[in-house]
Write a structure and sequence with these properties.
The complex is a heterodimer of chains A (504) and B (75). By secondary structure, chain A is of the alpha/beta class. Chain A is built from 17 helices and 26 strands. In chain A, strand 3, helix 3 and strand 4 form a beta-alpha-beta unit. Chain A: One of its GO terms (cellular component) is cytoplasm.
């Protein structure tokens, strides 16, 4: 199996009439899906005479978005999915970076697509999903494909304000999907309940583990995550048994007491990643679904999705942090200290990754790429790249990796090196705390805690700080906030907090 | 009703909550807003909205939401 297309066809030949994808009012079998993807691919081949070209897709999370993605891959090109809710300016910035000659959109987004400042061709999904399939054209494209060709470019926000496009190859996706399927025993009986949008790296797990194993994937609408009863009802009705969500999605269901009224009994595997999992939320899930497997996954987009994982195998108090565990099979992690040597014992250092989950680098950003994809400093004898994650970690007494913070969240305060994440974990455990985040005022030398929650007093929070943290880690200022700002991926938006703080 | 409108207007200034009947479908309120509204209602009216009542039809329209609060207060 050299690429994603072969992986899809393999499952299609085993389970042609099995339901592959589901939405509230719609579903599609493997066979029907492959036919639609091939039809779109033939149209793309007609429009783009060469291979390995970017094709941008402006379609909301849906079956047709996935058909379009696979259509692009069948044509020997690679895709970028745009968030349909992102500002037009940002869409144009991405288009400007990629300079694609083709953009695929559907009726729902057509007006936006037409308004974009874009010189290439527009392809309407609905008009082309039944286009005539020319197998010979598909075959000639297939012959030229190699596994290191890109499958997609995924954009994340860059520190300069210009989005960074991470180029990920077929080989990386295949290696990653194999690890997922093997580690979590994903097979044709798996029914995934997908939460994450397709422009977010976590969706790679849902999509490609499904494709590889012949599983089924239910695309849960975003709206359901505001209404736990609707969400849980849908999960029960459709016998969803595996989920991979961001912690805030698991949190909304738990906080509104959804699990008490409608426990989704079929759910046997609960995986999460994307941000630090509040242990309090995990414990609520574990109380209601005690037999499920829970796993904390960790990794950046630059290693496809994940490089370390921890399957929860013991109890954790609400104020204890979860480990990120150990490296995935076929993946290696190195903890490097600032001086470039390996951390020993429980020394903290930057987590670096080796192996096949690696991305090819950033699109049109040679300099940025060479800053984080570097020669392995521990092995100078032949060319070998490692990826520097920018995340600070250390090993605990069980030999499991603990995430401490981003390199830029690590502060020096009163002479101590402090991880703001550690303060957040301790503060989050307070009764009534819904969300909290720390920032550091480098001028005043204050640790600022933003908190959101009911019936919380500064006094109660300070008492908790005193009980749990050494005095140099106590926040200096407590600011109640009605609503924590979140970015497009559902993570706490720390840049917004800093801006809020700077604005008084 | 005035109290509920005040909560909402404070949260999302500039939205005409009396007129809008599709607060959810039109994307005016998102999931974090819903959580916040439920917490504010709990604070101000001392009623806890049961999860089964947290439905898009109710949060689409302030009148329906208020009717629910009144019903819960009587119970």
């Amino acid at each position: 199996m050299k690429n994603i297309v072969e992986m899809l066809e393999n499952s299609c030949s085993r389970y042609p009439d099995k339901t592959m994808l589901m939405e509230p009012e719609k579903s599609i079998t493997y066979k029907a899906f492959v036919n639609e993807a091939k039809a779109i691919a033939c149209k793309i081949i007609e429009k783009i005479p060469s291979q390995n070209q970017p094709v941008v897709i402006l379609i909301d999370k849906s079956i047709q978005a996935l058909v379009s993605m696979m259509g692009v891959l069948y044509s020997g090109n690679y895709y970028t999915i745009l968030d349909v809710k992102m500002p037009v300016e940002r869409m144009e910035c991405i288009l400007n970076t990629l300079q694609p000659s083709l953009l695929i959109s559907d009726h729902k987004q057509w007006k936006t697509a037409e308004k974009l400042n874009f010189k290439g061709d527009l392809l309407l999904y609905e008009e082309n999903k039944t286009y005539a399939i020319e197998e010979a054209n598909l075959l000639s494209r297939r012959r030229k494909m190699i596994d290191t060709d890109p499958a997609y470019v995924l954009f994340t926000s860059g520190s300069t304000g210009i989005p960074k496009g991470t180029v990920v190859s077929h080989r990386s996706v295949l290696a990653y999907a194999h690890w997922v399927v093997e580690t979590f025993a994903i097979d044709e009986t798996t029914i995934f309940g997908n939460q994450t949008p397709f422009y977010f790296s976590m969706s790679v797990l849902d999509i490609y583990a499904t494709l590889l194993s012949g599983a089924s994937l239910y695309l849960l609408p975003k709206l359901y995550f505001s209404f736990p009863a609707k969400l849980l009802d849908c999960m029960i009705q459709n016998k969803i048994n595996t989920i991979y969500w961001v912690p805030s999605a698991l949190g909304i269901v738990a906080n509104l007491k959804g699990l008490e009224v409608l426990p989704p009994k079929d759910v046997k595997k609960v995986l999460f990643a994307g941000e630090v999992m509040p242990t309090k939320i995990l414990n609520i899930w574990r109380r209601h679904l005690p037999d499920a497997l829970y796993a904390n996954l960790y990794g950046p987009t630059e290693v496809t999705d994940i490089c370390t994982y921890y399957i929860v195998n013991r109890d954790f108090a609400d104020d204890e942090a979860l480990p990120i565990g150990n490296a995935c099979n076929n993946c290696d992690v190195i903890v490097l200290k600032e001086d470039g040597t390996q951390a020993k014992g429980d020394e903290a250092g930057e987590l670096c990754v080796r192996g096949s989950f690696f991305a090819n680098g950033y699109y049109d950003q040679v300099e940025k790429t060479s800053e984080v994809f570097i020669q392995n400093p521990l092995q100078p004898h032949y060319p070998e790249l490692i990826y520097r994650s920018g995340d600070i970690v250390k090993y605990n007494e069980y030999g499991e990796l603990m995430y401490l913070s981003r390199k830029d969240f690590q502060i020096k305060h009163m002479g101590y090196r402090i991880e703001l994440g550690e303060i957040e974990t301790a503060m989050f455990a307070i009764e009534g705390m819904d969300a909290c985040a720390c920032i550091y005022d480098t001028q005043a030398k204050w640790i600022i805690l933003y908190y959101q929650g009911k019936n919380l007093t500064e006094k109660a929070i300070l008492e908790q700080a005193k009980a749990k943290l050494p005095n140099y880690m106590w926040p200096n200022k407590f600011i109640p906030i009605k609503r924590m700002p979140y970015n497009a991926n559902g993570k706490i938006d720390r840049k917004a907090l800093k801006a809020m703080y700077a604005g008084g | 009703m005035e109290k509920l409108l005040a909560i909402l207007e404070d949260m999302k200034p500039g939205v005409d909550f009396k007129k809008e009947k599709k607060l959810i479908e039109d994307g005016i309120l998102d999931s974090f807003d819903i959580v916040e509204i439920i917490a504010a209602i709990d604070d101000e009216f001392d009623v806890e909205i049961p999860v089964m009542e947290v439905q898009p039809e109710i949060f689409n329209d302030v009148e329906k939401l208020y009717a629910l609060i009144e019903r819960l207060m009587e119970e």
